[in-house]
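call fold(seq) -> tokens
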Amino acid sequence: MKNVKYIELKNQWDYEEDDSEANGQLSFSAKIVLIQLILLVFFILFVLFFQGTLNLRKSVKSENTRLPEWNKSSSIKRVSRFQDNYFTKYESRYLNCTEFINGNQGAIDSYVISGKLRLHKDKLLGLQMDCDSIKNRLFGDLPPFKHLKRSIAFVRNIYQLYELQEAFLSMIYHPSHFYCYAIDLKSDERLKKSMRVLSNCLDNIIVLDKEYDFDRSGHKQDEAHFDCSKRILEKNWSHAITLQNFDLIIKTPEQLSDLSELLNETSIMGSDHALTDRYDTNADWTPVGMMLFKNESEVPDEILHKKLVVRKSLNEVVLSKVFVLSMFEKLNLNMVIKRFDNESLFGVDEMMVMTLYENYLGLDGQVEVDFTDSREDELTRFTDWQFNQPDGPNAECKSHWLRHSICVLGVEYLQEISKSPMVIANKVLETFDFGTVICTREMMNDNKTGRSPDADWLSKRFPQFRGMRVKVNS
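ret:
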């Protein structure tokens, strides 16, 4: 044992032997004392050894039977896989992303029965928040970044859990892209502080100082998205993707760059009739009545006095920079945002951008297209809808859980996600199944994502793409 000084004991014995040689043979009583001393030493050694063995056995038994504890104070954390940043190895023992993506139902059932990987704000592993640690979590396990032909701006409104937002970012981070975040003023201080630390560590990540009063009805979503867009307007990006808290990007940075090059000046969104209980049907919806244009003298009368048809889609859209720039340059955006952000109505965040884009206003990045029919958006957002059913357990969802008429995405959806042409999947809850995030990241790193669209595919589904190609090439 470490406390037994064998060298010192040997030295003492040598000293007594030398002394005996100098003084002759030891007396009988001295020999008895010496023997007793030796026996005492061996007894002490035996006790120490037995006690150490007993403690070791107790330690091993305890380690094998106890559940893993959340360690917030550890200064050194061993990370060999991405999930180790957020979970213990014991908790993630049933996570088998390859089998999930391949649709192995047995592997999925074992993972689900074991309890899934869930993040709760009161049970989190302590993340090191220095810049080196943040960068290592984001892209330390990734190969060198590839050159991108075009850069994307990700404009995201958030309100909860830093770990989820960091994991989302790690899936799509590239030094050539730009990321702007708007935070709900009701968010906890941990999220706000952590996001600002993240922003300070990387130049292409921006967190707005202003905070917003988001709610389920969609209020302040448009305002926050456009404040973020304005903040990064001078940056070198080609398309902006608007996102909300639980939106999961399912295409790689390279795929998104290629998509931007293919779209060129085209914006992508769904096309549908707005529900009349979501906007003021009695208001004056002509551009002149809305005071929509900054300089009305430059606008033809047929545009200025034509009543806008209010349109809707989803909050998530892909906007070309030329269209965004034109909106800021020519329109009174603050006024039109207020027009749509009616505090007494529900679902107000799904109409403004669509209405401005789908009514021809002579803006750059816009073409005259007949949007009177409904057209499903087959590119922007993957969603498994189950309408008119209560939140909670739901047999129609693959994950068996419904929230706000949308099936929450668990690992049961990974195979479908891996084949989808969509850019975004909604919705992912970290308190329901964080394994979906981890495995989608692995899927993207392994280049097992769904097909990227080509020009023919886009032309068949998006009339604005066909029209913009003619306009640009004419």
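The CA atoms of residues 7 and 328 lie 83 Å apart.
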